[in-house]
Amino acid sequence: MATITGIPQVDLSQFVKGDASQQAAFVEALGKAFTEIGFVGVVNHGIPKELIKKFFEESERFFAQDLEIKDKYEVKNGAGQRGYCSFGREHAKQSNVGDLKEFYQFGQELPEGHELKDVYMDNIYTDELPEFNKTARELYQAFEASGAHLLEAIAIFLGLDRNYFNPHIEGGNSILRAIHYPPITQEPKSAIRSEEHEDINLITLLVGASADGLQVRPLGQDWIDVKALGDGIVINVGDMLQRLTNNKLKSTTHRVVNPPRELWYTSRISIPFFLHPRSDMDLTCLEDCVTEETPLQYEPITAGEYLDERLREIGLKK
């Protein structure tokens, strides 16, 4: 059975296939997790197990290639939004030391004639590993579908129309990232595999990593080890959703710590999907989330403006 340790767990099939009472129970459980800890484990999420397994395998093949090959796919002025991003290039916003990771990103693909077709960078596909490209496209679409169900439940919890997020995420600027944390070969300069940070987007969907290391720190609490067992995935609130809800839903600090010294020789791969809206989505705090007890915390900004600001803070955009 799929379980997630350290955080609450919900069953997405209750919402997608359940009756009204099951849906209401799911919405309440999801909302409680996101208001209290900002993280939740999800089982029966609808993302095919074999597709996840294949993308892990293809990712391992890509990162095992010589640096000369990988470097062909890095866009130096692309803010890391497509293709390869070399080891140590990204850092947490409060740090100048690069994380101990490299990654590859795939973005939105739209048909000819779509109004946003020319807005996004084209995806960068590898010549050496066509299955890496194909599997990424399929997994991206599966993540989008599951993410849409979760946002529908979030909208209901917030008292919005259940379809509130749909026009904002259709053709949205989401990112599928394959992350490789290589073996540690010398004493790190103070960096860990991924320094403590919050995600930029609406929600993040993370399939189980190939090794331990993920920790979350809810406000006022100590670090909690989080691990997905079996087929479960981990979902967390991003800064855009926290901002939209005036801190009602929590974008919780998290990190990936280094393994014990005796396991430095091991590597780690993880696959997050950062669900972003269209760049023109207004992130002005929802009226119902602003009260005397919870006064307005944020100035109006669009999703595109906020993304641009954050990419500069983490060193991907100059």
TrEMBL record:
This is 2OG-Fe(II) oxygenase. The keyword Cell membrane does not apply. The lineage of its organism: Bacteria, Pseudomonadati, Bacteroidota, Saprospiria, Saprospirales. GO terms for molecular function: metal ion binding; oxidoreductase activity. Keywords: Iron, Metal-binding, Oxidoreductase. Pfam families: 2OG-FeII_Oxy, DIOX_N. Residues 171-277 form the Fe2OG dioxygenase domain. The keyword Iron applies. Belongs to the iron/ascorbate-dependent oxidoreductase family. It comes from the Bacteria. It comes from Saprospira grandis (strain Lewin). Transmembrane segments: none annotated.
